[in-house]
Structure formats: structure tokens, C-alpha cells
Amino acid sequence: MNAKEIIKLNNEKRKQLTEENEYYYSDMLVYIRTCANKSEQQTEEVLLELLEHLLKAQEQGKTAKDVFGKDLRAYCDEVIEEIPGERTLKNVTFGIYLVVNLISIVMLSVGIISYAMHTLFDLGPNGIIFPLGTGLVIILISLASLSIWVIAIFKWIKHSTFKAKKPKKWTEFFRLWLMCVVFIGIIVATFILMPEFGMRITISFTTFIILGILLYITSILLNKKFRITK
Fold it and tell me: What residues form the membrane-spanning segments (predicted)?
């Protein structure tokens, strides 16, 4: 089975857990999965093994803490140490996929909105005009911001596990919303404040949108070939 099939099986088997064991196992699952540098396949296989072990112990009236110890975080750290790292090729492929996908979405959004504003309200130039240097810097800053945002989300999720008292849902939602606002704010501020430099390039709306579509199709093909998110 591949990782996605194992995840599906895991979700089905978890329904057999008692409320208490589900509470503990869910924290273990989230904590282990948020170690992004580990092999996804191996991680899911380990999580399934832990679940099956817990289900057998549960039949004997045991809880997760009876099976894995009182300090579940420490136990998970030991498990994580044994999981091999993700292959370099897969990490590179995932990075390329994110870059292509992000650029395609930005190009499609800017192209369609700019075209609509010019056509419907006669606002802006008849095409996409941007300084090459400025465009490259904005892309690099956007990618760096995205990386930092993703890492911050993972750390926040990981930090929320193994707490005696879970935070209220509205508090978690507010924190997530705040992180999203900061990320979007950085991107918008970069577009507004970045000074123009480099050779100015003019691309027609049609060409710009077509390039965005081609890049988006490329990201889909990458995803399908290397099973990045499916």
C-alpha cells in the first residue's frame, strides 16, 4: 500500500478506539506527522503499526498510556528518531511543485483581474507590465514567506498536542487567522513597497493567462506523476 492508502485504512481502524484512546492516539498521530523531513511512507506505516498495537491492547482493557508510557511526547520522539528521512528527490520535487503551483496561481489571478479591470472599467495598461528585477525579487520573497508560514503552521499544530487542557476552538481559529493575515500582509506589502528596477517587460493579457494555465497544468502533471498530494 502507498501512503495515501495507509492513511485511509488508519482512519477506518481509528473508529474502533475508545474515546480515551482516540484522544491520546490523535495527539500522537499529529505530533509524528508534523515532522515534515521524515519519509511519508515510513511514517504512515509506523502510525498504522502503533494503532494496531493499541487496538490489541485495548481488547485487554488497556489505554494508550498503559501501552506507550506516561510520557507520550517522549515516546513519539523516540519513534520519530527511528523513521528514515524523506528522499532528496521527493523533497526537490515537492519544492518544484510548490513553486510552479504558486507562480501559476499568481499569474492567473493577476492576469484575469487586470484584464477585467482594463476591459470593464478601462483601468490600467493594455497588458501586464512589470520590471524583471522587481518581479523576481517579489517571487523570491513570496516563496520565502510561504516556507516560513508553512513551518510556523506545523510548529503551532505540533505544539498544540499532549496538553492536559485543549484550547478552545475559537482561540485556535483566531491564531490560525492571525497567521494567515500576517502572511497575506507580507505578500501585499511586498507588491506595494518593492521599488521598480530591472528591464521592463510587457506581456499581453492572453499570453500571461495562457502561461499561467500551462504552469498550473504542469503542477497537476507533477502531482499526478509523483503523487505529491494524492
Answer: 94-116, 128-154, 174-195, 201-222
